[in-house]
Amino acid sequence: MSSPPRYKVGIVCSSGGHLAQLHCLDTWWSRHDRFWVTFDKADAVSLLAGERVVWGHHPTNRNVKNLLRNTVLALKTLARERPDVLVSNGAGIAVPFFYVGKLLFGCKTVYVEVYDRIDSPTVTARLVRPVLDRMVVQWEEQKDFYPEGINLGGVL
Fold first, then answer.
1. Residue 104 and residue 84: Cα distance in Å, rounded?
2. CA Rg, the chain, in Å?
3. Which of 56, 68, 86, 152 has its CA 20 to 30 A from that of 101?
4. Which domains can be identified in the chain, with CATH numbers?
């Protein structure tokens, strides 16, 4: 019996709750060569001790300067790392990484809609949807606005 394939994975998310949710997927990401892109905050430093981490620029909400800085960071990081797939659940830092990854490097992109948003799509999901290969939802109700979504259940 052969083992499942290993991928090079870029996990891109804000610190705080976004990071906590993706970190819960450790039974999946721990099997792959990976790097993280998040913010240099106490929770991220602690949670990702021993992991390869690229620190993004924050805040990202309505901050054009940091969008540009994170786009340059995405270009440099993805050129160096060459991931097979990018995974994110937001927030704003996902946007430049998903567009640069998909359009310039041909990365597969997977977005996991956050656990606590069941009544409407997040802004980040709406922004990255044009370059998504897979949308993952955590609630059946989220399929009302993501009919293409794959419901894998809650990650928390």
1. 13
2. 15
3. 152
4. 8-151 (3.40.50.2000)
